[in-house]
Amino acid sequence: MEPGLCYGVIDRGRQMAETNAVSDADAIAAAAVRLAGERGWRNLPLDDIAAEAGVSPEVLMGNYLCRPEILDGFERMIDRRMLAGAIAGFLKARPTWAMVQRWLMASVLAGMAVRLAAQSRR
Predict the structure, then answer these.
(1) What percent of the chain has pLDDT over 70?
(2) Residue 107 has pLDDT above 70, yes or no
């Protein structure tokens, strides 16, 4: 893989179906930022990012086509973590809301399970 920019690549609407896909994407983004701090962005081949993240070059390319996309992924990772922290802080300060949230999530998950069971019987 050659390092470089990808032109005209706009959000392709990838959906990460498995949890390890999200953790792979986060590991890749974190490794890229770590290596960029040490070496600079221009001297950073995608193969080195993959090795630092502990994934194959194919897994890296399955998540990101180029270095600018990796930066977008890093931004999304930070956004997810900040939002998760904000929600956790909100719920911790309001135990009634936490109870309502748990009840709603349990109801949604139960409804999904019933729907999946009904669909599998068809």
Answers:
(1) 82
(2) yes
Closest to 51 (Cα-Cα) out of 35, 66, 67: 35
Number of residues in the chain: 122
Q: Identity (one letter) of the amino acid at 38?
A: E
CA–CA separation, 122 and 114 (whole Å): 13
Domain positions in the chain: 19-93
Give the separation between CA 3 and CA 66, rounded to whole angstroms.
Answer: 7
Q: Are 69 and 49 in contact (CB under 8 A)?
A: no
The SS3 of residue 113 is helix
pLDDT tens-digit readout, 63-73: 998 888 999 99
Return d(Cα 110, Cα 83) in angstroms, integer.
25
Q: Is the pLDDT of residue 30 over 50?
A: yes
